[in-house]
Amino acid sequence: MSEKFDVDAPTLSRYVMQNTKDHELTILLNTLATSFKLIASAVGRAGVAQLYGLAGEVNSTGDDQKKLDVMSNDMMINALVHSGVCCVLVSEENEEPIFVPPEKQGKFCVAFDPLDGSSNIDCNVSVGTIFSVFEKKEGTVNDLLRSGADCICAGYCTYSSATELVFTFKGGTVEGFCLDPTIGEFVHTRVDMKFPSDGGKRIYSCNEGNFVHWDQPIKDAVEEFKNSAKPYSARYVGSMVADIHRTLLYGGIYIYPADKKSPKGKLRCLYEGIPMALIIEQAGGIASTGLFEGKIGRVAELTPDSIHCKCPIIMGGPRDVGIIYNCYKKHGVETPEL
Ligand code: FDP
User: Fold this and answer.
1) Distances in Å between the alpha carbon of 309 and those of 90, 92, 144, 195?
2) How many other C-beta atoms are found inside a 10 Å radius of the C-beta of residue 179?
3) Distance 240 CA to ligand 1 centre (A)
4) Which residue intervals define the domain Fructose-1-6-bisphosphatase class I N-terminal in the entry (predicted)?
5) Fewer CB within 10 Å: N-end or C-end of the chain?
6) Substitution site in 54, 213, 267 for ligand 1 pocket (most atoms within 8 Å of beta carbon)
């Protein structure tokens, strides 16, 4: 019987309670976990519940909103507002920040993309939620317009063959939890996740349709991935959560660089770049901006100048980020130590 039933389930709540003495942080993570269960349920029932398709609106970033985008956003906002531990919320789906009513306010500010990769929803390809958490200072949006170094917790949840939550506390390890549908709980399944130390599988992941817009060093590096003695495989889901989750587990490199068409890249700094950078770095990988506004820096050190601003992203291990840096060097660009 004990082989089939876990009599000592290492749940998310237990992990958080054991690893932080902060009760409000425990409430916050439980609240986020509840929203992820709701979103997973909606994503899983999208076909039968007729949730595919557009909601008829355009979101803060100019994308058409899908019905599931709107639902997921409502699920997260309702849960976080009523948690009693949040103060300011920023969502990809809302142009303006959301201020929690004073009687329900707590000490956290949370930025999130409720359903990232939503152009993949209608064909059942993996989608996910990404979040970053900051502590309240003045209770305004400035509390979120801070360096990624001030982010106290970051994570993502992927809705795929399994629903999996990966998160890290500032300066901590990266931990993975799978939703066990039989008990409705996230269970600790990946302890101290590490980016493969040898760089892992030889995979490059990017939207190569943007090739013509890229700077020469990025073009050269991608050509090098393809033409090396042992050519890399191309893998690009087009859902950031899925592409980063694979990169973290298998290795390789994921890039969405700045280019002539998008000088700041495409991905959003506050709820895509910074949280993913924290996870990749704290798992032992590198999260670089590539050449951005005249220099190459860490995504985790960026300070967003507005809640929906963008940043370029190059994430991988030293083996592959090094290939990109060498291409920059050949063009006279100073590169950081790896
Ligand atoms: P989507 O537009 O489908 O929501 O930033 C959002 C995002 O997806 C990421 O999840 C994804 O990695 C990226 O955009 C895909 O961009 P391209 O379609 O330009 O490749």
Assistant:
1) 12, 10, 12, 27
2) 23
3) 6
4) 11-189
5) N
6) 267
Tell me the pLDDT tens digit for each residue of 33-73: 999 999 999 999 888 878 887 777 666 666 767 889 999 99
The Cα angle at residue 142 between residues 141 and 146, in degrees rounded to 5 = 125
| pLDDT tens digits, 87-126 | 999 999 999 999 999 999 999 999 999 999 988 988 999 9
Atom of ligand 1 nearest to the CA of 241: 10
Letter for the amino acid at 154? A
pLDDT tens-digit readout, 317-329: 999 999 999 999 9
CA distance 226 to 204: 9
Q: Please state, in angstroms and rounded to a whole number, the distance separating the CA atoms of residues 206 and 288.
A: 15
- Is there a catalytic annotation at residue 113? yes
92 catalytic residue (yes or no): yes
- Return the residue matching tokens 């300066």: 171
Q: What is the mean pLDDT of the chain?
A: 95
Q: Which of 245, 254, 266 to mutate to test the pocket of ligand 1 (most atoms within 8 A of CB)?
A: 266
